[in-house]
Amino acid sequence: MAKLVLDIEYDYDFLLIGISCHEKDYRLSWSLNNSLNLELAKTDDLKLDSKKYKEPLSHSMFMFDNEDQYKQYYLISNKGPKGLLIPEQKHSDFFLLIKGTLLNDDKASILKKIKDTPGVLTIFDIDPNKLKSKENLLF
């Protein structure tokens, strides 16, 4: 009997911003809410199955669903108790993931506002298609 191979292609059509910051997740969330006029709120932690550990990896997550603009904002901690969400992004403490349609002007404005946010040391515009661990960002 012949084997069938299922080839699945996922859509990584979102803006991903790496944030280097020494603040706690709730402090960064509050600062981003003020800078970007968002309402990020704590949700259940992002849990990922791990081959290395019996228990799933856990990363704190904040979310805001802007229904008027059809955009969703997620602030996700890269550093969890048992490791990194995206190991190849060791210099990023957090990720701001934005789903929805963004114009180039919107993107530039968001990046500038995040860079000027108190507590943020630096930001990185990340192409999710170039990440080895990009599947960890699908939830």
Give an overview in words.
With 139 residues, this protein is α+β, with helices and mostly antiparallel strands. It contains two helices and ten strands; from the N terminus they run E-H-E-E-E-E-E-E-E-E-H-E. It has helices at residues 25-36, 104-115, and strands spanning 14-21, 41-42, 46-48, 57-59, 61-66, 71-77, 79-80, 83-84, 94-99, 120-126. It has a six-stranded antiparallel β-sheet, with helices on one face. A two-stranded antiparallel ribbon has the order 3-4. It has a two-stranded antiparallel sheet with strand order 7-8. A hairpin with a 2-residue loop joins strand 7 and strand 8. The N and C termini lie far apart (35 Å).
Layout of secondary structure:
Blueprint: E1 14-21, H1 25-36, E2 41-42, E3 46-48, E4 57-59, E5 61-66, E6 71-77, E7 79-80, E8 83-84, E9 94-99, H2 104-115, E10 120-126
Characterize the main sheet.
6 strands, antiparallel
Approximately what portion of the residues adopt beta-strand conformation? 25-35%
What string gives the helices and strands in order? EHEEEEEEEEHE
Unreliable runs: none
Key features of this structure:
139 residues, alpha+beta, six-stranded antiparallel β-sheet, two-stranded antiparallel ribbon, 33% strand, globular
